[in-house]
Design goal:
The chain is α/β, with parallel strands linked by helices. It has a domain of 51 residues. It is flat. 12% of the residues are buried.
Length: 97
């Protein structure tokens, strides 16, 4: 089976994605890793096909200074649990109903 694994260029994303690709390959699948250019040679060195994931470079329109809003309502068919010991009412887990 052909499998695409997509990972951002940070090591915390790229390394687990590469490990996942290696597991897919060991199971007989045909993985391809899409990630930042700094990890392409590393992936290829261990026999994993790797392709540049375009669009990762920051632009002037990017605004990472404002945190994304967090939802506190569960999607349809899911329930939200919050930690009683937490100071916030943010969800701590989601589970199917």
């Amino acid at each position: 089976m052909r499998v695409s694994v997509v990972a951002g260029p940070d090591p915390g994303h790229a390394f687990p994605a590469l490990a996942l690709c290696l597991r897919f390959a060991a199971a007989g699948d045909d993985p391809v890793l899409l990630t930042g250019t700094e990890w392409l040679d590393t992936a290829r060195a261990v026999g994993i096909e790797a392709v540049e994931l375009v669009g990762l470079d920051p632009t002037d329109e990017d605004d990472d200074t404002t945190p994304a809003p967090r939802s506190t309502s569960a999607p349809p068919g899911w329930r939200c649990s919050t930690s009683r010991s937490s100071e916030s009412s943010r969800p701590t887990s989601w589970s199917p109903t």
